[in-house]
Amino acid sequence: MTAVAYTRDELAKLLAPARTAFVPTMGALHEGHASLMSTALEYGEQTVVSIFVNPMQFGAGEDLDRYPRTFDADVAICEARGVDVVFAPSVDEVYPGGEPAVTVDPGPLATVLEGKTRPGHFRGVLTVVAKLFGLVQPDVAVFGQKDYQQLALIRRMVNDLCMSVEIVGAETIREDDGLAMSSRNRFLSPDDRRAAAVLSRALRAAQQRAEYGVAAARWAAMSELKAEPGIELDYLKLTTPDLGELADDAEGEARILVAAKVGSTRLIDNMPLFIGGDS
Predict the structure, then answer these.
(1) For the chain, what percent of residues have pLDDT higher than 70?
(2) Counting CB atoms within 10 angstroms of each CB, which of 37, 55, 193, 277 has the fewest?
(3) Pick the catalytic residue: 30, 33, 218, 255?
C-alpha cells in the first residue's frame, strides 16, 4: 500500500535506507506519469512520487489557479503502479516563510525556447527540484522527455552543482493520434484536440526528411504546421541534442522542438532527429 506524507517529518519517517528512485510531479497524473513510475521501479528498491503544484514556476497571467488538482485519483494511480511513498506537501511546507531568498539560477539555456516565453519559469523549476532532491535524497530521479528543456536544465544543474543523483529521461508517452500526453490536454475542446495532433505530425515529418539535411527537416515540419489553421505557433526549433545552436550543414543527432497555442491551451512537444541519414 502506498503511504502518503504531507510534511518533511512524515516523509523522513517513511523513507527506508534503500536505493530510492524519485518521480517529481505536479499531480493531475496520467499514463505518461505512470510510465515514469514504471521506469522508477526499474531503478530503485524504493519509489517516491511527489505531488506539488509549484507556484514559483508560474508567471503572471499563467494558469496556476487553473492547473488541475486531482489528488485522490493521483494517489490511486501511484498505488496501482506500486509506488511506496507519495510526498504531497503544502506550499508552506516547501517554502516556509515565503519564496526563498536563495534560488537556483538556470543560466543562459533558460532564456531561449520556453524560457523566452516564460521568463523566470526555469528558476522556479530548478529551485523546487533542488529542494525536493534535498528532502527525498534520491539515488535516481526520472523525468519525461516531453519537457525536454526542463530535462536538459536539470541534468546541467545536477552536473554543475555536483548533486549525487542519476537523472533518467523517459520516452514521451503519446495518444493514439500522436499527441503527447499532458495534464493540459484536458483543456482542449474537440476541435482543439483535433488541431493539436498536427504538432506530432510536424515533428514526424521532420524526422522523415532529416536525411536530406536541416533545411529539409525544418521545411517538412513547417509545411504541416502551416496547413493547420487551428494553432498559433510560438516556435519551431532544430537544435543539437543538448539544445545548442544547430548549423545548417550539421549532420548526426539533433532535436526538434515545437510550442503552440491551441485554443487557450499552450502545448509543447519534441522528438529526436538524425540529420543526414539513419542513425
Answers:
(1) 99
(2) 277
(3) 33
